[in-house]
């Protein structure tokens, strides 16, 4: 084989050359995948900080809540602390405030139900805050491989058209468009794999936190229930 042909083929197969000389469709696909990858990594780091903060806030609140003391004192401490008035802290404050608001207006059992509903609303808000942008990670993980596959198909079509124009299948004719197609596939996987791993991890953490919030709601409801006879006239 002519050394000049091998040298030209090697140069045309460099990453920079393949990207800059790719067809317009493939370049658009690569740009879309790059944007999706950058956005997903940004969300991954943001959600890491959010979930880390949520776990720490839950641990701090449970330590304060189960340390003993009057409910009113715990409420004043939690409601006045920005580090505690999130997660289980916000659920506790919502339930306590609603129970104190309704305890002298309606039957104690109805006050408990009202407090439970208020805690449920606070729980849903907290879960909604935690799962914000997780849908985007799910979309990137599921759609990116297909976008990359579109670039692959387009690159293979370009290879066949190049063979048709040249009249024969040579390395210099086939290698660049095939490599271009493989780059699109790799870009799709590069965007999808981290998004998939992060999504699964954060969904697991969300389910775990939600279950802990649910347990706390049951425990706090039982505590309020024990206080009901004391609030009856």
TrEMBL record:
GO CC annotation, single: plasma membrane
Keyword Cell division: yes
Matches recorded under Pfam families: MotA_ExbB
Membrane topology: Multi-pass membrane protein
Bilayer-spanning residue ranges: 24-45, 134-166, 178-199
Lineage: Bacteria, Pseudomonadati, Pseudomonadota, Acidithiobacillia, Acidithiobacillales
Location of this chain's protein in the cell: Cell inner membrane; Cell membrane
Summary of the function given for this chain in its UniProt record: Part of the Tol-Pal system, which plays a role in outer membrane invagination during cell division and is important for maintaining outer membrane integrity.
Family statement: Belongs to the ExbB/TolQ family.
GO terms under biological process: bacteriocin transport; cell division; protein import
UniProt keyword annotations, A-Z: Cell cycle, Cell division, Cell inner membrane, Cell membrane, Membrane, Transmembrane, Transmembrane helix
Protein name: Tol-Pal system protein TolQ
Positions of the MotA/TolQ/ExbB proton channel domain: 105-214
Subunit details: The Tol-Pal system is composed of five core proteins: the inner membrane proteins TolA, TolQ and TolR, the periplasmic protein TolB and the outer membrane protein Pal. They form a network linking the inner and outer membranes and the peptidoglycan layer.
Family matches, as InterPro entries: ExbB/TolQ_transport, MotA_ExbB_proton_chnl, Tol-Pal_TolQ
């Amino acid at each position: 084989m002519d050394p000049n042909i091998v040298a030209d083929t090697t140069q045309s197969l460099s990453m920079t050359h393949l990207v800059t000389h790719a067809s317009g469709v493939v370049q658009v696909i690569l740009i879309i995948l790059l944007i999706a990858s950058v956005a997903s990594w940004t969300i991954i780091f943001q959600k890491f900080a959010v979930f880390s903060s949520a776990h720490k806030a839950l641990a701090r609140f449970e330590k304060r809540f189960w340390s003993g003391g009057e409910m009113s004192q715990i409420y004043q401490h939690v409601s006045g602390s920005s580090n505690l008035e999130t997660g289980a802290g916000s659920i506790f404050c919502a339930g306590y405030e609603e129970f104190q608001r309704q305890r002298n207006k309606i039957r104690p059992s109805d006050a408990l139900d009202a407090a439970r509903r208020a805690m449920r609303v606070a729980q849903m808000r907290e879960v909604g805050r935690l799962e914000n942008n997780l849908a985007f990670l799910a979309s990137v993980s599921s759609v990116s491989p297909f976008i990359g596959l579109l670039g692959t198909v387009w690159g293979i079509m370009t290879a066949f058209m190049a063979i048709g124009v040249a009249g024969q299948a040579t390395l210099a004719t086939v290698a660049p468009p095939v490599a271009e197609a493989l780059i699109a596939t790799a870009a799709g996987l590069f965007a999808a794999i981290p998004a998939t791993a992060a999504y699964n991890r954060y969904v697991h953490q969300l389910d775990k936190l939600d279950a802990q919030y649910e347990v706390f709601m049951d425990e706090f409801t039982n505590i309020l229930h024990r206080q009901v006879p004391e609030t009856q006239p």
